Amino acid sequence: MLNQDFLTPAQIVAELDKYIIGQHEAKRHVAIALRNRWRRLHAPLDMQAEIVPNNILMIGATGVGKTEIARRLAHLADAPFVKVEASKFTEVGYVGRDVESMVRDLAEQSVNRVKARRQEAVKAQAAEAVEEVILDALIPAISQPAGAKTGLGFGSGGGDGVPQSDAELNERTRERFRQKIKNGELEDRKIEIQVQQAGPSVGIMGAPPGMDEGTLSGIQDMLGNMLPKKTRKRKVTVAEARKLLLDEEAAKLIDMDEVKDEAIRQCENAGIIFIDEIDKVASSGGSGKSGPDVSRQGVQRDLLPIVEGSAVSTKYGIVNTDHILFIAAGAFHVSKPSDLIPELQGRFPIRVELQSLTKHDFFRILKDPKNALTKQYEALLKAEEVELTFEDDALERLAEIASEVNAEVENIGARRLHTVMSRLLNDILYDVPDKIGANARILITAALVDERLGDMVKNRDLSQYIL
């Protein structure tokens, strides 16, 4: 990944181009938004609090790349990222998820990222600690009263005939076994170890009046942490013990208070929340509305303070949303952006309309991106030692069929390519490796595409393939 200190808007767009075809205008806007975050953190201190992100509203049909742009942007920025669907939220007071849960999800994701990074940094140290635990299980310490003679303590002296103490002999034995572990000679040896056991969760039936979900969750975690950690014995191989104990030992080496503090800072200054299907909470406007329209407007009103900037209580601490970047997206087939309540419209000052994908776009999607579907299928069959290749004419024909099916049935954008590729390759995937063995070479030609998909548009019987 590029160093963010030198990640210019043009470089961001170039990186997005490796995975997403077209939609240059949308890429430009998100690239500027990402670079502006770095610029804010390097602005004079008295201005940093005043500079707020320009949240973005993406408008476009399904399958044109809205979610992928946001997801790749977060990966590029190495930032905490969550994707939520606006249609899953309910107005405060109704059964369902409240909008603040998206911020709690972001905090959770941020803590997990920081924790994983800290554990990776102490992995070598944790591995040494695990090795000592395994050695303790392999060679129980020799404990005898001082001066006692044991069969192990004598008769094993050095060349001068001086007997060894139990401690010296034990240390020599440990070193011998340590070398065997490093050489992988004891991976299948069974040992008995103590592993932490998840204790009973502390449940509170319902939050008291005035207490939000984040505070309740924090109290539950605090009560849970006050309970003694339970352990149990397990008999496992040395290889299994290493996997079981590594995370436990790494967790002991990191300071969770520091993890939480850093995670909250990253969440507040670099977090990205992608709100999909925001058009589903847009009502058709007008007065005298009732039922679903009222509920949708309630969700919009609840979104307002979160997007504008507020303090949300999470089990890791208070998260201020002032500088979190919000990217909303919707197809707006039935409703339109102006159907959102005016206050919420104002919270998304940058609007960008994504273009519908053409046949040429489909061809490039199949051929150019680093994660193109064709390359994914090639990798799948390479695992079976089968070489799969596509002629350009075949890709042109696949793009043409996908475009025609979208026009005739329902336009689901690039997701249609999954449909045609699945229909094209299912028989091959089924026959490998039983009928098509290792070292086979399969060439996908335009003729083969026509043979297997020629009747796809004509029959319009796509019920088993429509996503």
Q: What is the CATH C-level name of the largest domain?
A: Alpha Beta
Assign the structural class, choosing from mainly alpha, mainly beta, alpha/beta, alpha+beta, or little secondary structure: alpha/beta
Q: What does the largest sheet look like?
A: 5 strands, parallel
State which percent range the strand residues make up.
5-15%
Helix % is 40-55%
**Euclidean distance between termini CA atoms:** 32 Å
The sequence of SSEs as H and E is HHHEHEHHHEHEHHEHEEEHEHHEHHEHH
Oligomeric category = single chain
Question: Would you kindly provide a written description of the structure presented here, covering whatever features stand out?
Answer:
This protein has 467 residues and is of the alpha/beta class. The chain folds into three domains: 4-115 and 265-353, P-loop containing nucleotide triphosphate hydrolases (Rossmann fold, 3-Layer(aba) Sandwich); 123-142 and 166-253, no CATH class; 359-458, Helicase, Ruva Protein, domain 3, CATH 1.10.8.60. The protein contains 18 helices and eleven strands. The protein has a five-stranded parallel β-sheet, sandwiched between helices. A two-stranded antiparallel sheet has the order 3-4. Helix 5 (101-121) packs across helix 10. The longest helix is centred in the first third of the chain and has 21 residues, at 101-121. The protein starts with 8 loop residues before the first helix and ends in an 8-residue tail after the last helix. Mean pLDDT is 84; it is low at 141-156.
